[in-house]
Request: fold
Amino acid sequence: MSRSYAGQTAADRAADRRARLIDVAFELVGTHGVSALGMRAVCRTAGLSQKFFYESFPDTDALLHTVYRAALTRLEHAVAPAAGDLRATFEAAAELMESDPRVCRILLIEPIADARLRTHVRDTVPALTRAALGDRVTGSPDDPATRMRFSTLFGALISLFIEWTEGSLGADRAAFADHATRVVVLLLGDGLIDATVPEVRIGPGTRPN
Reply:
């Protein structure tokens, strides 16, 4: 039976220390990038000794992946109410990244340069795609041709969300969501998304093929 101290058990205190390490790491990576995620910097900012770091994580790679997962969880929670509505999903994601640019940096900017995160992204992209597009996706994620199409799509969307978060695309979130939806239909409309996707017009009397 664990003894309590100041109303907390040993397990409670360990969980609290782990949460502090994650919060600090989230702030460091989300504000300064992966290069700022050193064990000493994390422990110093969290006010913990290195022995407590190893209590929760074997190394900084494990902490980095935990930070990535924490940012991904925030995104998943933000877009959950829009399940099945692609445009609403983009609008919810844009609102989250506008209010917390750290999420954008962790999920979209840092993986471009960091091989550890890039590998982690490759492992999570199929699930993210299915979550966003649901049963509309008809191509297999194991098919190289399908993966090339989605790589093109995600490259475009990553660029859009980075520019949006940095404030260079204006402040009309609805217009941003409309445009992101058009990008999906334009790039994947010919066979990878089925006919249940609502028509998205590009201009008067036109629609993507």
